[in-house]
Amino acid sequence: MDQHNAETQSKNTRPGDLLRQKMLQSAFYLALFTLAGISFLLMTQYITAEPIKKAEKQVLLKTIDQILPKTQYNNDLFTDTISVTDSEHLGTDEPVTIYRARLNQKPVAVIMKVIATEGYSGKIHIITGIYQDGTLAGVRVLKHRETPGLGDKVDIRKTDWVLGFNGEKLRPDQQYYWLVKKDGGHFDQFTGATITPRAIVKAVKNALHFVQQQGDRLYESAQPPE
Description:
By secondary structure, the protein is α+β, with helices and mostly antiparallel strands. It folds into 2 domains: 52 residues; 150 residues, no CATH class. It contains 4 helices and 5 strands, in the order ααβαββββα. The protein has a 5-stranded antiparallel β-sheet. It is elongated, with a radius of gyration of 29 Å. The model has no long low-confidence stretch (mean pLDDT 87).
């Protein structure tokens, strides 16, 4: 009797039902594999997040060391920070972290990333160090997509052009000083590449204006006004 019922049930199973069962099984295994993949990615991200963060911090610190020697400050730059927003002077709508250097608790300089928005091949990310008196400690290019052999000369690994900013400051009495020489200013451009240095000169000048406007408020605990 049981064998007869099983045969009858088997005969009554429609092809559509079998197909539906197989589709459900496939969907289940697909969901299972997807969940396993997502779990693996999340775990990998969790495990590597801290090492990546530490590595990025070390790279940034090495770059800052090129601009502002450690002998000039004795505080922890990464805990003495403020966040500001000023798209006009800093080149981005996003908050910018300002690292504040102090020597025996007295203000020395601020270090901040700014963006030159008018590069030949897009945005140029740079970092500036500016002393309390408004003098440039130094400038470095962090990221760019400028033309190899031409605009990429702004990179310290290619030429020393960027060292020309060392010790510079705003000069209100010289209207055209903060321009490239082709535009009647002080700073060199490259043969066949004027747009890139022009963009960086403008961005650095804007950063100097920002620091000049904010003054000592940048060293206070509270956020400076926008």
